[in-house]
Inverse folding.
């Protein structure tokens, strides 16, 4: 097997972007019937490499061989022709189109040369879906089906185009543990049917579970390629990060005190009139970190928006330190002692086209000393910005630099600096480590624990089970707009949490 | 004049006014469905009206008689296509803001058409009056039916064409693979790109078809209503066509309905003086009607949700 | 869409608009050549017209003034993330309100009457724009479409008011405003050989200064810009996005309305029944774009615009070029500014050269 021609071979691929070498002489072999994992941190160069394989970028140096023949992949079309398909992390699906329309787009069966032959299309897709056990409904609109199903549509898109080599880009980021299991099953089936798979991920568990070989890249360079059966998670992690990492966050046991946040029977409908919060109850005490575990889309964002006043709830009560803050304005809530590290730092956390200086007073600009009789004091604002940027080691060329030009990690540090500096009673951290590298993740998690140790209440929302398990003092599981159970991290495990996250209710509610 | 004739004529006039709006609104749909905002419709109509006025005049001059208006239409189509390239190059290739690019089109259209008119007609502010515009073509038998015979079946060939085109555009958008691709490009260009649909090419086609159809709309104004081109031949029709497109939720059938409604509100102005009770209403209010109604309907009914999801966003494959 | 605009209009140096202006003039020259005219003679007579004598120079200033106001109007909304294509309608209602106050109010002392008329014009424009802002904020309706519709509504509505309440008998225009409402500056007009000089010009320059201070030095300006760049972040920070949208549109409309008021009170002293839209508001879009949506840039671009427009009359005398050529020039300038890629492409050889020099 080892001597057989690889289905894809990358030879010394180098790709430079202004100021950075994204891929530095990367080589990789994928054999038929193999699941080959590509492991690396955010920004290590995985996506760039795969975009090269898929024809979206051109390498500056190096070559690609498919089935032993050198090829130039200058467009996705060419990649498709060569039998390479990509399951994108952010699905490339047209929401108002049906499953069938999405799959055949670009390669439509036709009648009379121009008319879309919808019937034939449906039949073809049904057949493919049955063959690989994907169970999709060809007539459903994308906007009406679950995320897991949408991913299967993405897989079908590649199969419909006759792909033999499938690239999965961080495919589990948006799935429940159960959906992840299903996906693993599908991937195995694909390999059994003769396909080959490249799996891009930074999750070690998945790699250990399903891959045959692992290539680890760091800062654009291949560190090593190993057989999965001959390695272990710690070794992989060390190679990925470049130093030994402890997955445990150092922290003392919590000593929770009085309730800071109490949420009772919260219900809320979204703009489309769908119930997104259904009688949600929870509390967070001073000196503890409550982690909310759950799959994306079960009401986490809405819960935060409700607490912070960005959305109006239909019924229920939100109390902060015994004061009713239900449906109050964001400013009232902020002034009552709530800080919020938002889920989407580009959408909510920063005005990207403002300077760092302007961003550091985003919630306090109207107060003295920044505001003097309706005019802003640049001197005072700059002073504050400098102080925070130094205290939290935000790497920026200057305080006049636009927030846009900072790295994700530094943007996040700046937000955290601003929010913590407000000295809140309740700190809400939504996905605070998303898209950050390991160093930044450690920093952020340490800050959360430090806040807890100072007696603040911390509400942590994360889709990463590991983060929930490691950082929280108490875990509440959210499912379809309700807290379906509460557990302590030391008394539970991934399986149990996974089941709860998927809605099989556990006798919840202690503490 | 008996009331049956009046109603028949009112329907007829409504359709005459609607025709230009239908063409232009269909044009707008092509562009915006592909993801490119087109507030330059007014300008494309101006270019079309100008080309029709000039080319028909020269055709008449050359003794082409009844064929002259068709030369005018042909010229308008070509002119619209060429002008639309400006919008396409700026907003698609150079990723300029699409609204601003549309403003540019309107600017250039107003300036250059009048410039050329003065150039060609020795300083006059309008083209020489055409001896014959398009003639009405009654459809045998059908045109003898009371009321609707006069109303529907005794009209310009462009009006019949506009109605047929509504169905054709509907078919193209929703039943052909081309339509599927065009809509995909407007909704989610990077999805289309990754399955090999040429995003920029589709958008070019959308914008060019848009320019051609809007110019055709402009040409019908010259050839059926004014018989000459001057600075106010096209004054606001393009914007009403955009309103019709939005009313119609970017769907050809809906846009058709809205265009006919606007045509009606224009046409009824002409008939207002006929009735004693309506003389009391100031004419300005009649002129205002379509615009005010548009605002009311936009506020009351239409959300933004039906607009193509990527409308207004230049496609940049590097940013994904 | 808006964020892109900001990128274009704040990051870049003055080089792009300058090159765009030059390229626009070149396009105009080429079109004149094709038409068989002499572009040098044409541009020459354009400038000779403007700077040839004090009367025409004064009249050019008169031409520039309303352009400053509508340019500021468009730019102000731009900074708050809104495209106010409705400056035209706001300008018209501003004219009409000022005319009505100028004619119907009587017995007020000289400065007071003028001030009341000016304020009426500004308020009318502000309210007219405020409608758009309100509908955008409350109902989420696209401000561009609403503005376009309100432009035409304003045109016919103003005609209705003038025809039915303010008409000078037998004329297609209103009566003259009372002398007490006039903002003309008699001695200055005399100095400029009877060109129509008025206080509006001074106020326009002050308005630009106000724009600058308000937008970049005040708390409210900070809020407006935050809303303009990122409404979600503004809401997160406790600002009311809706209130700021209405406020931005209102102030924007005040600028345009004042422009209309100046035109009536300082220049015509009456309002005509319009046969078509006057276009000053639409020109404001061009002025704002060429002026990079910055108040001081707008002073420059309004001057350029006014010079070109006023001078174009001289072109048709001096070189027999149809004055519409200027619309083509201006359209081309905006085109080159909006599609900056083209300008950059033209500039590329220069950049490369500079880079090489640096390396050496």
């Amino acid at each position: 097997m080892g001597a057989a021609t690889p289905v894809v071979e990358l030879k010394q691929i180098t790709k430079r972007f202004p100021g950075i070498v994204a891929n530095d002489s990367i080589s990789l072999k994928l054999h038929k019937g193999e699941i080959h994992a590509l492991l690396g941190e955010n920004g290590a160069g995985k996506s760039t490499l795969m975009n090269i394989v898929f024809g979206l970028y051109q390498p500056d140096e190096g070559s690609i061989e498919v089935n032993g023949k050198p090829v130039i992949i200058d467009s996705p079309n060419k990649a498709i022709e060569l039998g390479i398909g990509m399951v994108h992390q952010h699905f490339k699906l047209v929401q108002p189109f049906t499953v069938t329309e999405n799959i055949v787009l670009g390669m439509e069966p036709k009648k009379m040369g121009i008319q879309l032959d919808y019937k034939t299309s449906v039949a073809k897709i049904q057949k493919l879906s049955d063959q690989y056990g994907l169970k999709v409904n060809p007539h459903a609109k994308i906007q009406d089906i679950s995320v897991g199903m949408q991913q299967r549509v993405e897989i079908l898109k590649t199969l419909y185009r006759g792909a033999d080599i499938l690239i999965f880009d961080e495919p589990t980021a948006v799935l429940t543990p159960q959906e992840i299991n299903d996906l693993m099953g599908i991937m195995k089936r694909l390999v059994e049917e003769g396909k080959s798979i490249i799996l891009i991920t930074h999750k070690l568990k998945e790699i250990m579970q399903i891959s045959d070989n692992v290539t680890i890249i760091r800062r654009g360079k291949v560190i090593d390629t190993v057989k999965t059966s001959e390695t272990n998670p710690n070794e992989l992690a060390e190679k990925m990060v470049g130093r030994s990492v402890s997955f445990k966050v150092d922290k003392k046991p919590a000593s929770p005190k009085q309730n800071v946040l109490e949420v009772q029977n919260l219900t809320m409908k979204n703009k489309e009139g769908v119930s997104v919060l259904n009688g949600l109850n929870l509390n967070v005490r001073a000196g503890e970190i409550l982690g909310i575990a759950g799959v994306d889309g079960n009401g986490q964002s809405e819960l935060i928006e409700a607490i912070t006043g960005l959305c109006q709830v239909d019924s229920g009560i939100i109390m902060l330190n015994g004061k009713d803050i239900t449906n109050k304005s964001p400013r009232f809530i902020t002034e009552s002692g709530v800080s919020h590290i938002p889920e989407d730092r580009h959408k909510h956390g920063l005005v990207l086209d403002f300077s760092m200086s302007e961003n550091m007073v985003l919630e306090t600009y109207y107060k003295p000393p920044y505001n003097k009789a309706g005019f802003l004091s640049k001197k005072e604002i700059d002073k504050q910005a400098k102080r925070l940027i130094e205290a939290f080691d935000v790497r920026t060329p200057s305080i006049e630099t636009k927030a846009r030009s900072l790295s994700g990690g530094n943007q996040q540090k700046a937000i955290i600096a601003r929010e913590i500096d407000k000295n809140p009673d309740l700190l809400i951290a939504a996905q605070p480590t998303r898209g950050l590298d390991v160093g930044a993740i450690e920093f952020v998690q340490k800050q959360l624990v430090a806040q807890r140790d100072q007696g603040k209440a911390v509400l942590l929302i994360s889709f990463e089970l590991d983060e929930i398990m490691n950082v929280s003092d108490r875990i509440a599981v959210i499912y379809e707009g309700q807290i379906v159970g509460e557990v302590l991290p030391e008394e539970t495990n991934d399986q149990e949490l996974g089941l709860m996250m998927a809605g099989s209710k556990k006798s919840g509610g202690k503490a | 004049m008996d009331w049956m004739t009046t109603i028949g004529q009112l329907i007829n006039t409504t359709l005459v006014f609607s025709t230009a709006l239908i063409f232009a609104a269909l044009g707008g749909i092509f562009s915006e469905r592909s993801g490119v905002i087109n507030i330059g419709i007014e300008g494309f109509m101006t270019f079309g009206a100008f080309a029709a006025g000039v080319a028909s005049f020269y055709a008449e001059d050359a003794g082409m008689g009844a064929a002259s208006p068709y030369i005018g239409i042909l010229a308008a189509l070509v002119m619209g296509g060429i002008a639309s390239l400006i919008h396409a190059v700026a907003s698609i290739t150079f990723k300029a803001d699409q609204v601003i690019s549309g403003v540019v089109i309107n600017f250039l259209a107003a300036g250059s058409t009048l410039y050329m008119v003065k150039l060609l007609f020795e300083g006059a502010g309008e083209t020489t009056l055409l001896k014959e515009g398009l003639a009405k073509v009654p459809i045998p038998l059908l045109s003898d039916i009371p009321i609707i015979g006069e109303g529907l079946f005794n009209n310009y060939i462009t009006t019949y064409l506009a109605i047929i085109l509504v169905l054709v555009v509907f078919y193209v958008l929703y039943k052909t693979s081309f339509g599927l691709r065009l809509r995909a490009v407007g909704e989610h260009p990077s999805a289309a790109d990754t399955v090999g649909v040429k995003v920029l090419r589709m958008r070019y086609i959308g914008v060019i078809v848009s320019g051609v159809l809007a110019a055709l709309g402009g040409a019908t104004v010259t050839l059926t209503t004014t018989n000459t081109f001057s600075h106010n031949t096209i004054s606001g029709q393009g914007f009403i066509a955009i309103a019709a497109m939005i009313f119609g939720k970017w769907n050809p059938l809906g846009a058709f309905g809205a265009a006919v409604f606007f045509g009606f509100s224009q046409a009824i102005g002409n008939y207002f003086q006929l009735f004693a009770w309506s003389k009391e209403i100031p004419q300005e209010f009649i002129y205002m009607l379509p615009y005010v109604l548009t605002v009311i309907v936009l506020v009351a009914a239409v959300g933004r949700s039906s607009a193509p999801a990527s409308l207004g966003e230049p496609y940049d494959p590097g940013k994904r | 869409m808006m964020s892109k605009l900001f990128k274009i209009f704040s990051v870049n140096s003055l080089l792009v608009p300058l090159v765009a202006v030059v390229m626009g003039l070149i396009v105009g020259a080429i079109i004149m050549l094709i038409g068989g005219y002499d572009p040098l003679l044409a541009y020459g007579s354009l400038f000779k017209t403007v700077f040839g004598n004090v009367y025409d120079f004064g009249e050019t200033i008169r031409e520039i003034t309303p352009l400053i106001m509508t340019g500021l109007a468009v730019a102000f909304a731009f900074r708050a993330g809104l495209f106010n294509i409705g400056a035209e309608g706001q300008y018209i209602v501003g004219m009409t309100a000022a005319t009505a106050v100028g004619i119907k109010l009587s017995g007020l002392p000289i400065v007071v009457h003028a001030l009341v008329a000016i304020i009426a014009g500004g308020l009318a424009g502000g309210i007219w724009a405020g409608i758009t802002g309100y509908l955008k904020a409350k109902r989420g309706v696209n401000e561009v479409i609403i503005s376009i519709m309100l432009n035409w509504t304003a045109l016919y509505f103003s005609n209705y008011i003038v025809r039915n309440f303010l008409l000078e008998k037998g004329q297609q225009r209103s009566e003259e405003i009372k002398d007490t409402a006039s903002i003309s500056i008699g001695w200055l007009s005399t100095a400029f050989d009877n060109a129509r000089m008025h206080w509006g010009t001074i106020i326009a320059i002050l308005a630009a200064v106000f724009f600058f201070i308000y937008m970049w030095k005040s708390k409210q300006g900070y809020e407006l810009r935050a809303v303009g760049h990122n409404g979600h972040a503004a809401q997160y920070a406790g600002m009311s996005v809706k209130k700021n949208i209405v406020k931005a549109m209102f102030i924007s409309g005040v600028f345009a309305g004042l422009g209309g008021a100046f035109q009536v009170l300082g220049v015509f002293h009456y309002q005509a029944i319009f046969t078509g839209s006057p276009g000053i508001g639409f020109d404001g879009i061009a002025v704002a774009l060429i002026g990079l949506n910055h108040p001081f840039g707008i002073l420059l671009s309004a001057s350029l615009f006014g010079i070109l427009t006023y001078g174009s009359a001289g072109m048709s005398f001096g070189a027999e070029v149809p004055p519409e050529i200027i619309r083509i020039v201006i359209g081309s300038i905006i085109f080159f500014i909006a599609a900056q890629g083209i300008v950059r492409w033209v500039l590329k050889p220069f950049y490369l050269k500079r880079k090489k020099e640096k390396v050496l």
Summary: Chain C has a mean pLDDT of 90.
